[in-house]
Write a structure and sequence with these properties.
73% of the residues lie in helices and 0% in strands. By secondary structure, it is mainly α. The protein has one domain (14-427).
């Protein structure tokens, strides 16, 4: 049996590739803050200036894009996992499709570890997708309705985790306030008071580190690759362990199951009706913007107090998931428009090389922001980071279609595919002259 079970490009779904291209480019708009600024993702006042332009950029991202590009990316992974299994089940018998699927998914974990520990990106999602993707196999045959129910359950559980964190914070805050009140009254601290004060101070520093710690963090990242590794390795470990089990696991499972359901319903392949896509846009944006606008107002009025940040996490999915569905509706209608076809093909090329482009973003930002290259970490204002985003977008929009003119896969996709089939895949496209030669008998 040929190791190339499914010919490249013969059965691609145009809307999926286009959506994936938009997602991989768009996710950089959110990731760039983590690449370029210390501890400023949730609170723009921590670092990166506080000019009107910086706050306005944060506001636009929070209203329209926070969590939605990651959500779109995760939905597409769930759909792609299902598509991989369905296509290989139709080309092979026995355990072969399962064998390929699990091998493919396990290698994705390795890509995630490389992205985290070599390219120094603590916000990597490939590790999450690889780990959670292993569990998707058991859901592959479920009907869309059951997938939607399960997706809802997982997202509700994720919200419950956020509610629990807010309650824990409030309890810690109350204990610290009581201890401070006793100190202010000149009374001796009771048992556990000092521990309560220390715990609350540690929580506060997680949200807003001291200026001294921030400056030390920036200096270490800018000094050299080795010193940057020491800083980021600790963050990667936290994100791929504690944070993953608290947040990433449930979120990824919920959104991936949603992606599988949407693919089976024809929503992600462009097969749904225009009415369905319009409903996704109107309802999704109306609900999403209403929630997001409320969160933005709360955060700005409270000057990004940790208590308020945690409170907005409780409504986070209620805003971002409808917004994500609205984005899908817009993309679907654009893909149906004839005037958008050339642009869709451009995004589709980026989407066909999504793994390569995602890893390339980390590689470029490693060079731009750490001591391995230009050492711009902490040196640009928040709004200036988007000049870097725009430059990377131009690069990837240009090089993706040019590469695919000559090669069947992106470099990382070729490596991933070769490892999955445990056989070196043909990379170069056949020349037009060769493709016209008669087959030998």
């Amino acid at each position: 049996m040929s190791s190339d079970l499914v010919p490249a490009g013969s059965d691609r779904i145009g809307m999926l590739d286009t959506t994936r291209g938009i997602a991989v480019l768009g996710i950089l708009m959110m990731n760039i803050t983590g690449f370029g600024l210390p501890y400023s993702y949730d609170d723009p006042t921590v670092w990166g200036n506080e000019s009107p332009a910086d706050i306005e950029v944060w506001r636009i991202m929070a209203l329209f894009f926070e969590g939605t590009l990651r959500g779109l990316f995760t939905i597409l992974f769930g759909a792609s996992a299902l598509l991989f299994l369905e296509r290989h089940a139709s080309h092979a018998n026995g355990l072969r499709p399962a064998d390929l699927y699990f091998r493919r998914t396990l290698w994705l974990i390795v890509f995630g570890l490389v992205n985290g520990y070599v390219l120094l990106w603590s916000g990597d999602v490939l590790f999450y997708y690889g780990v959670v993707g292993l569990a998707l196999f058991v859901f592959r045959t479920l009907a869309p309705r059951r997938l939607l129910v399960l997706a809802t359950v997982f997202m509700i559980l994720q919200t419950c985790v956020s509610v629990g964190e807010w309650i824990d914070y409030r309890e810690s805050q109350a204990l610290a306030q009581a201890a401070n009140a006793r100190q202010a009254a000149g009374l001796p601290l009771a048992d556990g008071d000092q521990e309560a004060l220390d715990n609350f101070e540690a929580v506060e520093k997680d949200f807003r580190p001291s200026q001294e710690n921030l400056e030390a963090n920036v200096a270490s990242v800018r000094e050299s690759y080795v010193s940057a590794f020491r800083v980021h390795a600790a963050d990667v470990w936290y994100m791929q362990s504690e944070f993953f089990f608290r947040h990433g696991l449930l979120e990824c499972m919920g959104m991936m199951l949603l992606g599988m359901a949407l693919l089976k319903l024809g929503v992600l392949s462009g097969a749904a009706s225009t009415r369905v896509y319009l409903a996704m846009i109107v309802i999704g944006y109306a609900l999403g913007l209403l929630v997001n606008l409320s969160e933005v107002r709360q955060l700005e009025q409270a000057q990004f107090a940790p208590e308020t940040i945690l409170r907005t996490f409780m409504t986070y999915d209620l805003g971002r998931i409808p917004m994500t569905l609205g984005h899908i509706g817009v993309i679907a209608l654009l893909c149906q428009a004839r005037w958008f076809s050339k642009v869709a093909q451009l995004f589709a090329a980026v989407g066909q090389m999504a793994l390569t482009n995602y890893l390339t973003q980390s590689l470029i930002c490693l060079f731009v922001f750490t001591g391995a290259g230009l050492a711009w970490y902490g040196q640009l204002a928040r709004h200036e980071l988007y000049y870097v985003v725009a430059a990377i977008w131009v690069l990837q929009l240009v090089w993706s279609p040019l590469w695919l003119q000559h090669f069947r896969y992106g470099p990382a996709e070729w490596v991933w595919r070769s490892l999955t089939y445990w056989h070196r895949q043909r990379l170069r496209r056949a020349s037009p002259a060769a493709s016209q030669l008669p087959a030998s008998t």
